[in-house]
Design brief:
The chain is built from 8 helices and 12 strands. The protein is an alpha/beta fold. The protein has one domain: Metallo-dependent phosphatases (Purple Acid Phosphatase, chain A, domain 2), CATH 3.60.21.10. The strands form 2 sheets. Strands 3-2-1-11-12-9 form a 6-stranded mixed beta sheet. The relative contact order is 0.18. The protein binds zinc ion.
Length: about 240
């Protein structure tokens, strides 16, 4: 069994299509939220994701803000600009779709959240200390999170008293032996200075996790950002991967 794990698509349809084209066969797709925000194709991305078979999709902080702008002052200027733009562009059906997404999903082996098990929509899981605390907030062996846009792995050491942190490189197969928290990186706005779209493949039978990267048509997304009148900085960061 192979599960495609994606996150932080951020309305970047070219990147999403490149990921879907590069994945040969998977049995399920787990999307960890932030389908919209930053990018120019919110409706296209929501409809593509919603059409996938065997999909589990979670709510991200940008998705939540498009549905309900109560928390909009937690975003920086560019992000909130695009959230207001998205609220105007998005269809009623797609807004309804976002409004029904769960904040956290737990199976017998894996806990899924956008931010962290402790604070599913908002908390950034970037450093070892925050990861260490979060291991107490889920009971499964594995947790999968997005939100930081970094392909991070936090692993409890075999003795159980500390946590290691690594940014995973593509093509390196991780054997899952202890409790772990993995982030597949971002499809639509990578932030590790590699502009290629990032995703993960989880194999529950083999107990493996692997990051993949795929180049996409960045110029097509940049042109659409310009055409929509969205902040120019968003074009630059896509090209540079931050
Ligand atoms: Zn995000």
């Amino acid at each position: 069994m192979r599960i495609l794990v994606i996150s932080d698509i951020h309305a970047n349809y070219s990147a999403l299509e490149a990921v879907m084209a590069s994945v040969v066969t998977v049995d399920a797709v787990w999307c960890l939220g932030d389908l919209v925000g930053y990018g120019p194709f919110p409706n296209e991305c929501i409809e593509r994701i919603a059409s996938l078979p065997n999909l589990t999709c979670l709510l991200g902080n940008h998705d939540a803000a498009v549905v309900d702008s109560r928390d909009i002052d937690r975003f920086n200027d560019e992000a909130s600009h695009v959230i207001y733009w998205t609220k105007r562009e998005i269809t009623r059906e797609n807004q309804d779709y976002l409004s029904k997404l769960p904040e956290i999903v737990t199976t017998d082996w894996v806990t899924l959240a956008h931010g962290s098990p402790r604070s599913p929509t908002w908390e950034y899981l970037i450093d070892q200390m925050t990861a260490m605390v979060n291991f107490a907030f889920f009971e499964t062996q594995l947790a999968l999170v997005g939100h930081s846009h970094l392909p991070l792995a936090f692993t409890v050491t075999p003795s159980g008293d500390s946590v290691t942190r690594a940014i995973l490189q593509p093509g390196v197969v991780q054997k899952i032996e202890t409790r772990c928290i993995f982030n597949p990186g971002s499809v639509g706005q990578p932030r590790d200075h590699d502009p290629r779209a990032s995703y993960g493949i989880l194999d529950p039978e083999e107990q493996t996790w692997e990051i993949h990267r795929v180049a996409y048509d960045i110029k097509a997304t940049q042109k659409a950002i310009e055409k929509a009148g969205l902040p120019e900085k968003l074009c630059k960061r896509l090209a540079e991967g931050w």
